[in-house]
Amino acid sequence: MHDHRNAEHHHRSHDHDGHDHGHEHEGSELSEMALRVKALESILVEKGYVDPAALDVLIETYETKIGPRNGAKVVAKAWADPAFRDWLRQDATAAIWSLGFTGRQGEHIVTVENTPTTHNMVVCTLCSCYPWPVLGLPPVWYKSAPYRSRAVMDPRGVLADFGVTLPETTEIRVWDSTAETRYLVIPMRPAGTEGWSEDELAALVTRDSMIGTGLARDPKEVRP
Amino acid sequence: MNGAQDLGGMMGFGPIVPEPEEERFHAEWEKRALAVTLAMGATGMWSIDTSRHARETLHPADYLASSYYEIWIKGLEKLLVAHDLVSPEELRQGRALSPGKPVKRVLAAADVPAVLARGTQYDRPAEAPARFAVGERVRAKVMHPVGHTRLPRYVRGRTGVVERIHGVFVFPDTMAHGKGEHPQWLYVVRFGGRELWGEEADPVLSVSVDAWESYLEPA
């Protein structure tokens, strides 16, 4: 289970044995971290800086309410509705706000569209900037050194790690999110989806396709 | 600053490890780390730029060996001590030794949805015309500020083209140090892969950064 986590930890310089311990235990380093966070939280609560009930609501929000299905709805609508697509081009923040996806880490959104000749990929080399209202919390790899170091220099190598190969002639356009603007990739709409509803189209849209490390799913996976 | 956070173009970190999109957290403590970081941000005692700077001033070896939530927690501890909200001794003992100091706001559970939905607006009205136009060639300055900056090393000294003008935005380099917003025009500047990485680079690669006006000079 969770091989990717072990692999992730292998990239860290003072890793331990790499055996699979499951969720609750990751060896001494992370146990120490769990204790450290717990102590910090209790200090902050005791001092009256944070309301423990607010912490629970924050977690619940990002666990259950704000995630990449929001972005999938934006993409599906962009595919199905040319007026909405044009609105995204003019003012993506407002267009996305109209669907109810707004707020922290998505105050200023720009959408970038993949075409047969151009593939877009988004990274934040300096930290972990990511469009939270439409994609939720970033995956571990997005915030980690392997992706942040390589996306701007070797994006085809990055794509290979995701099992994606593009023609050599396809231009690769990488957006390094160095300010408060957040970029959302509109992947190419798969052929053979004419007449699909927005809900069906949204099922084709993966999180990685909206970062630019993946493509939309094969329609046969959704409607065999 | 030229810290470990400025990762673009470094090598040797190994392959990227994809993960399923249903996976939100990898341990319970990560949830608490997220929540305390956001809740303390909501007190209004520091800006997002100040938090970023706290993280990037971790020792490079510590930064590179830490997961991102670990970086957040280590950064948060630094901020709490720097703002005199928690003492180093309290962090050592893992308990409060004195009452809290006044903070601007305490985020209440009932306010969380509205506060998240509102976010923070970083754009400001323009008070002067933009210096550069779309299509203009510009060079990212060679600069090595010891404080916070959002100009990554890999574009410094490189020539690109202004592709888009975002508007006027607060300036992180001053915000991070409590020196005010000093809003500036913000541009998308696009660089060719070979300009950044040399002749071996992919001929059809281009990379852009969002760059504040004072990061740029005419080319």
Question: Can you characterise this structure?
Answer:
The complex is a heterodimer of chains A (224) and B (219). By secondary structure, chain A is mainly α. Chain A has a single domain, classed as Nitrile Hydratase, Chain A. Chain A has 12 helices and 4 strands; from the N terminus they run αααααββααααββααα. In chain A, strands 1-4 form a two-stranded parallel sheet. A two-stranded parallel ribbon of chain A has the order 2-3. In chain A, α4 runs antiparallel to α5. The longest helix of chain A has 19 residues. Chain A is globular and about 60 Å long. The two termini of chain A are 29 Å apart. The N terminus of chain A is likely disordered. Chain B is of the alpha+beta class. Chain B folds into 2 domains: 91 residues, Orthogonal Bundle (Cyclin A, domain 1); 82 residues, SH3 type barrels. Chain B contains 8 helices and 6 strands. In chain B, strands 1, 2, 3, 4, 5 and 6 form a 6-stranded antiparallel beta sheet that branches. In chain B, α1 packs parallel to α4. The longest helix of chain B has 15 residues. The two termini of chain B are 24 Å apart. The mean pLDDT of chain B is 97. The interface between A and B is large, with 98 and 99 residues.
Structural key phrases:
heterodimer; A: 224 residues; mainly alpha; Nitrile Hydratase, Chain A; two-stranded parallel sheet; 47% helix; disordered N terminus; B: 219 residues; alpha+beta; Cyclin A, domain 1; SH3 type barrels; 2 domains; 6-stranded antiparallel beta sheet; 8 helices; 6 strands; EC 4.2.1.84 (chain A); lyase (chain A); metal-binding (chain A)
